[in-house]
Amino acid sequence: MSNVATRFAPSPTGALHIGGVRTALFCWLYSKNKKGTFHLRIEDTDKERSKDEHKNQIIKSLKWIGIEHDGELYIQSTKINDHIGVANELLKNGHAYKCYCSSDEIEAQKKRARQKKLPYTYNRKCRELNEDDTPKDIKPVVRFKSKIEGSSILEDLVQGNVEIDNITIEDFIILRNDGTPTYNLSATVDDHQMNMTHIIRGDDHKINTFKQMQIYLSMKWDLPNFAHIPLIHTLEGKKLSKRDNASTLDDYSKIGIMPASLRNYLLRLGWSYKDKEIFTLEESIEYFNLDGIGKSPSKLDINRILSMNEHYIKSISEDELYDHLAQYSKLYKEKIPDEKEERIKASLTFLKNKAKTLEDIYNNSKYIIFDEVSFNPNDLKLIDEKAKNIIANFLNKILLLTSLNKELLEPIISDLIKDHETNFKGVGQPLRVALTGSKFGPGIYDIIISLGKDEIQKRLSNKIFS
């Protein structure tokens, strides 16, 4: 067999769906595992709904998660004449025919099918129509002449052999009455011309595969290998759709999920290798195979994604983590000032504590990023007269220190607890509010040390605490 070639072929009619990303990932990994090529085809023949913004989002999303296509970007609409040429060839060799049924006739057939609670299939009225008997005032569609006798077998690399009675495959339209090709014709011609060896896609395409196989055989083309991946479902067991929350990569990027952790999660969503959970990019390529893909739908679990992201936050270097944080802040929040980089890097050991996303780390870091403290109004109510005295006493004591470390700070906090007849929370909470604007956040010792003596003096000298 020639070198493995796979493709991902989205339509630019909306944002790239998470299920599509997983399909693209599986195609890409399979081709790389086999030292083959992975191609991106934009199926933009739906001119009304196809938009450049969606095409650009698809390309950007794939790049974000680490999937780069080989060769030129393939644009389906530039190949329309080739698709029409194949339709004419199928007409010529008797594998297709012109259908003159009006839209009213088709609608009547569909209505009868609904009444009988049966799936609609065209009744093949025009299949053997004599050319001389054709109406002259109707623009026909062109239908593929599907097999009626016997059955067809799809040798699926994931699902195993799938057999279907040929009579259940309708004479599907390959050219509309305006002369434009339909999906099944265009996709088949493109896959043949692109020399695709493996078509890996969602198992909702199985019926399309049977139709496309018939086009291949009628044209005497070599069949590619087919693999159909079970779909992704919600936790409730429903098919995941673009209308669901967190269905696009942007949804995950915005809350601070990192590309490598989402890629690892999607890899394990419906695929397994021994009992291994965490895969580097190199390991993903080395171990990926179609045998490891399960036959049942997988459930998208945001808690598992957050858990995977937390693992990556804890395991990557702090330099790398800072780069992710800086990029995230620039895209979705406010750019971190250059002069704050070293202070935040030095504080990441505790800023990342319990953080599941880059957004969590950003929120933990805001007291360092912004010189002006933004107070939570409810938390500010905690600063009563007793709290103000604690803040003033703490400031006086800290000004006497030449350096800041936990060993020097602990006795000060202990004395304040004793002098004001309170507990650790009674001292730590007002100090945290005064220094960060919120009663929530990192530990008080970490906050104090990370800010430094000058910044603490500035913040605790705020007139609202006097």
Which helices and strands occur, and which strands form pairs?
Layout: E1 5-8, H1 18-33, E2 37-42, H2 52-65, E3 74-75, H3 80-92, E4 96-99, H4 103-115, E5 141-144, E6 151-156, E7 160-165, E8 173-175, H5 183-193, E9 198-202, H6 206-218, E10 225-229, E11 232-233, H7 249-254, H8 259-268, H9 281-287, E12 298-299, H10 302-315, H11 318-332, H12 341-351, H13 358-369, H14 377-380, H15 385-398, H16 406-419, H17 424-436, H18 444-451, H19 453-460
Parallel strand pairs: 1-2, 2-3, 9-10, 11-12
Antiparallel strand pairs: 4-5, 5-8, 6-7
Helix pairs in contact: 1-9, 3-5, 5-6, 8-10, 11-12, 11-13, 12-13, 15-16, 15-17, 15-19, 16-17
Essential attributes:
single chain, 466 residues, mainly alpha, 3-stranded parallel β-sheet, 12 strands, 46% helix, 11% strand, elongated
Largest beta sheet: strand ordering: 1-2-3
Write down how many β-strands occur, each being a DSSP E stretch of 2 or more residues. 12
The span between the termini is 81 Å
Largest sheet: 3 strands, parallel
Discrete helix count: 19
Report the mean per-residue pLDDT as an integer.
94
In the predicted model, the low-confidence regions spanning at least 5 consecutive residues are: none
Instruction: Identify the overall geometry.
Output: elongated
Kindly provide the radius of gyration, computed on alpha-carbon positions and rounded to a whole number of angstroms: 31 Å
Question: Which class best fits the helix and strand makeup?
Answer: mainly alpha
- Strand portion: 5-15%
Helix content: 40-55%
